[in-house]
Fold this sequence. Notes:
alpha+beta; 11% strand; 6 helices; 2 domains; two-stranded antiparallel ribbon; binds flavin-adenine dinucleotide
Amino acid sequence: MSVSRFAKALRNIFALAADFVSLIRLQRDSFVRVGRRGDVNELRKAYEGFHPDVRAVLEACPDCHKWAILEREPLPRWSDGRVVLLGDACHPMTPYMAQGGATAIEDAAILARCIEKVDGEDIEGAFQRYEAHRKPRTSRIQAISSANTWMKGGDEDTSWLYGYDAWNVPLTPMEPFVKTF
Ligand SMILES: Cc1cc2nc3c(=O)[nH]c(=O)nc-3n(C[C@H](O)[C@H](O)[C@H](O)COP(=O)(O)OP(=O)(O)OC[C@H]3O[C@@H](n4cnc5c(N)ncnc54)[C@H](O)[C@@H]3O)c2cc1C
């Protein structure tokens, strides 16, 4: 991620370099998780063959930071008793479908609907219903994002992703939920 001040405005640029991503994948356990200062020349070198406009923007960057891109396999469960997860906490994904934030917002809407349905009674059941509804979708997105294959062939129908309406999609029926723990 590069941050630069040019045209008297704060600009935030997110730049990926293939080698850098592989490096992160190899070193993910030891990589610094909080952004640390990067080498802006290394960044420019990674974009050497790009369009002059892209290189001009990178030339204008006074400095940059390196951030690890972290992901994980779908979790076995998202809730424990009256504690429940949503967003990156339960389904972190690579950014290649630009869905991390979108799915977190969808989670919030479905979770709110599930809680509303139980009217303060069976909160644990509401959490399990939320997970049963959401996990197939987020797991699918995690897998495609991880493979970085979205819209690179075989994805002609994107309506399942962009046509999802969290406020109106039918919820997964309340029963039965199989406890996985
Ligand atoms: C460069 C970049 C580009 C992205 N582009 C897109 C995009 O185009 N579209 C998209 O949908 N998504 C995008 N994402 C992903 C998106 O930003 C995340 O998936 C989303 O922010 C996850 O939301 P969240 O609420 O789950 O977690 P977060 O946004 O990480 O929120 C978690 C919050 O908890 C706080 N916190 C952590 N620990 C504690 C603690 N112990 N006590 C109290 N608070 C704590 C954190 O400070 C943070 O504010 C992008 C991400 C990055 C890094």
